[in-house]
Automatic annotation (TrEMBL):
Its cofactor is FAD. The gene is ovmOII. This is Oxidoreductase. Pfam families: FAD_binding_3, Rng_hyd_C. The keyword RNA-binding does not apply. Residues 2-329 form the FAD-binding domain. It comes from Streptomyces antibioticus. The keyword Translocase does not apply. One of its GO terms (molecular function) is FAD binding. Keywords: FAD, Flavoprotein. PANTHER family: BINDING MONOOXYGENASE, PUTATIVE (JCVI)-RELATED, TRK SYSTEM POTASSIUM UPTAKE PROTEIN.
Amino acid sequence: MRTDVLVVGAGPVGLMLAGELRLGGAEVVVLDRLPRPTTESRATTLHARTMEILAARGLLEALGTPPNDVMGHFGGVPLDLTLPTPYPGQWKVPQTRTEELLQAWALSLGATVRRAHELRALTVTDTGAEAEATGPDGRPVRVSARYVVGCDGERSTVRELTGADFPGQDATRELIRADVAGIDIPDRRFQRLQRGLAIAARRPDGVTRVMVHEFGRAARPRTGAPAFAEVVDVWKRVTGEDIGGGTPLWLNAFGDASRQVARYRDGRVLFAGDAAHVQMPVGGQALNLGLQDAVNLGWKLAAEIRGRAPDGLLDTYHSERHAVGERVLSTIRAQSTFLLGGPDVEALREVFRELIDPAHTRHTRAHLAGLISGLDIRYDVGPGDHPLLGARMPYGELDQAPDAACRKARGVLLDLAPGSPSAAELHAVAAGWADRVDVVTAGFRTADGPSALSGARAVLVRPDGHVVWTDSGAGRPETALRRWFGAPVS
């Protein structure tokens, strides 16, 4: 096979990237070693920024209305995640459903997904890559690609074959978990008992997910899932309850390892999701971080392939997302201490509860809520002093969202002062980029509070939803259009 991009890994991140690449006009082949999509639903939480992205691509309709809770947590301490967004809080969607949705979308856009194909060898040159996989019949399958993206999880084969530097620390503590049918125990939300941490949640289908950590118990070297007997023993020591009569449907262990690949882009090889960063999956942040990696990368890599990327655009994937990942991993390490630390962290947890209590200060709570939800991400996009520069565009404040442009992952130049002399000039300037940027006229919704768009009459938004120019002190629109979308059509 020959393709523009070979994506290794057909989990949520690889499928999201495949769809984004197709929207940008790049050919993509996705290989996955599993013969069929996994039935394990490891991550079930989608945060506000990810929900905004799915809405922009027109994917939320298929999900219906998932269960929502504005209350999340920071290291097990309850935290109100309410912020200005149409999708505040946590949205519960089984990972199996997320993968099903993203695969159908990617396939509908023309992506090729090959399952039961395990990557065995990878040769990378300055001009492309040659990959060899074992197909479902055991025979070798060769793929030639201009770029390879590893989306193949924390034990990434792409990372191993390329020898990518992956600094960080291994797990010292772990949670073991199981989905168990046929048990009747109380629900527990991060309950800290004398001997450990216990979590239990009964699903609508009657299956209970249990997670447990025994204080002082070190992470064990594992080559597979823990035995159910181990979960039963640890659960009983921590809670006093016997769940041994239940039927285990899925078993898993995860630790507090924290590693990040040194370069998200190394020539023709790139990494996204858990292949780029390994962290304890606290509050669903790992899945959301990976999906947002894919959306940041997709349009840039597609522009590079189609010859429309300005110099250095693809390298901004590393500079932007490595910094975001580093910050999230640092936060997760702090949460791991709160979660798995023994009685010695109780005093610190109590002080923290006071700090995030809205009765004392709303700023700390909002800061942490923005960090967990992904709504506070701001990239360095160049000069200018408008507070929206580099931040995600709050489309919910407009009376008309640019749905067509968003669904096609195109740039958007928003005209917020229609009929003005400057608006006519704006439309004329943008004509040179009409093949990749849409000009959309919009007004403001009636709102009680101040708008994040105050003072702006025009705004340029990238395909990933981040603002890269406003008419307020950020120079000429032509400069921003060239920087992010390449040269105009003559």
